[in-house]
Amino acid sequence: MALSARVLHSTDFFAEVTGIAFHELNPAIAKRIIEFNDRYAVLVFRETGLDDDGHVAMSRLLGPLETAPALFANNEENRRRLKLPELFEAGNLDADGNIQALDDRFRLFARGNRLWHTDSSFYQQRSKYSLLLAYIVPPGGADTEFADMRAAYDALPQAMKRRIEDLVCEHDVWYSRELAGFPDAQSEERNRRPPAQHRLVQVHPGSRRKTLLLASHASHLVGWPIDEGRALLRELMEFATQARFVHRHSWRAGDLVMWDNRCTMHRATPFNDLAFRRDMRRTTVIEDAA
Ligand code: OGA
Ligand code: MN
After folding, report:
1. Which domain range does residue 81 map to?
2. Which of 41, 107, 129, 215 has CB 3.0 to 4.6 Å from 121, enough for a Cys bridge?
3. How far does the centroid of ligand 2 lie from the alpha carbon of residue 214, in Å?
């Protein structure tokens, strides 16, 4: 079966791709997947049949993978459900496979996923692709929303494009945790994950289109008074997440969604996470060294 893409959003963004035999992937197919992703920025593949090993192996064809970091100073809190270090926990299950408790620190840390963000922008070496595979979808769906940052950039008024062209932004994971109400990062935890700086306007490598690099992690503009930088970032975030740039994905178990963090933002939507299981696992492909 030939690979084909069906676009699901009006900005030529977010496509469902069919025709991939996930059990016999090779570099040539990976190249086709990247070409589709360069164009549409987010792809959904249904019923891939992938398990953990297949998910990691498939992701590896797209580039080197990030391994999930030890987030907490207390090692007991770093215990993991997922055995492969390349898999990030994106559901609401604890190390023993039970629903995370109300005060589970990982649960509180992951609350930040409900804010618009891009994965890993708080690292100097960012990640390009994230691949999120759904195993258990709770009642209500727990949809994920995606925003098209190339379309948002294109739609900015000329005066704004000129104003932001050379700005540099600092991204700090602890800033987004603070916004999301994570209570008590310890100094050791903070020191392990220092902030990074990136240009606000970027050229997306795969399409040569300009794009905005925004995220809940974006704490301030370098060289600007903190409050003025935050006000401009807030204005851009509001602009870039208008309904016309946003696609909402309703998960089915077995869906694999792949997105390019360099030209999109995403956020989780609320569900009753203390009552229902959600099993989601993610790999993350690191950007090529500059
Ligand atoms: C992620 C993420 C959103 C969701 O895995 O990076 O932000 O809906 N997930 O789980
Ligand atoms: Mn994310």
Report:
1. 4-286
2. 215
3. 13
CATH of the domain at 20: 3.60.130.10
Nearest CA to ligand 1 atom 8: 268
Supply angle C-alpha 258, 260, 262, rounded to 5. Answer: 165
Nearest CA to ligand 1 atom 4: 268
* Residue list, ligand 1 pocket, CB within 6 Å: 90, 113, 119, 130, 132, 144, 266, 268, 280, 282
Residue 1 reports pLDDT greater than 80: no
pLDDT, tens digit, 9 for 90 and up, residues 161-201: 999 999 999 999 999 999 999 988 999 999 999 999 999 99
Structurally, how many domains does the chain consist of?
1
Q: Which atom of ligand 1 is nearest to the CA of 130?
A: 6
Q: Compute the distance from residue 284 Cα to the ligand 2 centre, in Å.
A: 10
User: pLDDT for 259-277, tens place per residue?
Assistant: 999 999 999 999 999 999 9
